[in-house]
Amino acid sequence: MDSFLRFPLEYIPFILLVAIIAFTIHEYSHAYLADKFGDPGPRQMGRVTLNPIVHIDIFGLVLLVIAGIGWAKPVLVSAGRFKKPRWHGTIVAAAGPFSHLILAFLGAFLINLFNHFDWLNAMSLGGARAIVIFLFYFLSFNLVLFLLNIIPLPPLDGYLIIRYWMPYRFAAKMQKYEQWAPYVFLLLVFIPPLRHVTIDPLFNLQWYILDFYNIPLRWIFGYALDWRQMLM
C-alpha cells in the first residue's frame, strides 16, 4: 500500500493533522479579514470560524496523501465590498501565506523549546518520536505552503495580490487565461525538468526564512539550531 502513498504510512496521521491545522488557519485568515474589511460573504457562508469542518476539502486531503499536493475550500471574497478594494484585497490575499510564516515560526520555536529544556528525554520513546515527527512536519509543511502560495499563478494568493494592482483592461484580458493556470502549476510541480528550474529554486528560500527565524530564536534561547543539518 505504501507504493500508492506520497508519505510513509506511519506518518499519514501526522501529515493529516498538520494539513488540517494549516489549511484551517489559512482560510480562516482570509475569512476573518474579509469580514473585518466589510465583506459579509465569508460570515454568511460560515467561514469566519476555526472549525476545520467548514474549511477542509476531503478530496484535497486525499490527494495530499497520494500525490503530495492538496488544498482546502477557498474562501470567496468580494473585494468590491471593501472600503479600499485594492489595499484591503491585497491584505486579505496576503493573510493566507502570512499565516503559514507565523505557524512555521511557531514550529521552529517549539522545536527549540523542547531541545532547550531537554523535554524529549523525559518522555517515552514513542511519545518523543511522535512529537519530533509532528513538529518537523509542522515546520516544513507550513514553509512549503507559504512558498507555493506566493507563486503568481491563479488561483494562488500570489496572483491575487498582483491582480488587485493590475490595470483594469489588463486584468480583464488575464481573466480569459486564468482557467488554464492550475494546469500550468501542476506541470511545474510534477514535470522534473520544469520543477528543477522553477519550484525547486523557490523552495531553497526556506533556508533564508529559517535563518531569519534564528535571529529572535537565538536571542530567546541563546543559540541557533542548524536547520539545514536537521531538515535535509
Automatic annotation (TrEMBL):
Biological-process GO terms, alphabetical: proteolysis
Q: Where are the transmembrane segments?
A: 12-33, 53-71, 91-111, 131-160, 180-199
Instruction: Tell me the superkingdom of the source.
Output: Bacteria
Checking Pfam families in the record gives: Peptidase_M50 (PF02163)
Which family does the entry's similarity section mention?
A: Belongs to the peptidase M50B family.
Q: Where in the cell is it found?
A: Cell membrane
Q: Which organism is it from?
A: Paenibacillus athensensis
Mode of membrane association = Multi-pass membrane protein
Protein name as it appears in the record: Peptidase M50 domain-containing protein
User: Which GO-annotated molecular functions does the record name?
Assistant: metal ion binding; metallopeptidase activity
Known cofactor(s): Zn(2+)
Keywords, in A-Z order? Cell membrane, Hydrolase, Membrane, Metal-binding, Metalloprotease, Protease, Transmembrane, Transmembrane helix, Zinc
| Record carries keyword Flavoprotein | no
Asked whether the UniProt record includes Ligase among its keywords, one would answer: no
What GO cellular component is one of the record's annotations? plasma membrane
Main location per the UniProt record: membrane
- Matches recorded under InterPro entries: Metallopeptidase_M50B, Peptidase_M50, Rip2-like
Residue ranges annotated for the Peptidase M50 domain, each copy included: 16-190
